[in-house]
Design goal:
- By secondary structure, the chain is of the alpha+beta class.
- The protein contains 1 helix and 4 strands.
- The radius of gyration is 30 Å and the shape is rod-shaped.
- The protein starts with 10 loop residues before the first helix and ends in a 9-residue tail after the last strand.
Amino acid sequence: MNHRHAGGFTLVEIMMAVIIFSIVILSLVGLSFQVAKHSTRATDQALGMAALLAEVDLVVATAFDSLPNLAGCATTISGVNSVVGCTAVTSLSPRLDSIQIIVTTSLPGARPDTINMQRGKERRPVPLR
């Protein structure tokens, strides 16, 4: 008797290929999830840093006598995350103020960013006599 083998793959070979393919796809899905998670965290940290720098720019651009008007908190919402920026102004002397800016994000595990700075009142030039 002469048995002829038909060309093709056996059921065991096909099942092994499907199992290997599934393992590769599942590992790629896990990797893409981690990349998306880190990308979201980096975007949220950039939003917090932008809010912090915006507060610093506002303090620098504001006239010395108007600095107490900046005290308070403001909230920025981007997607599901919120950023709260609080500014406190303390008068150290008639010519010197201390400013503290704290920015907090709603990210789990994120610590608040804080900047402390001092602003002095401009000295007026003495006119020539």
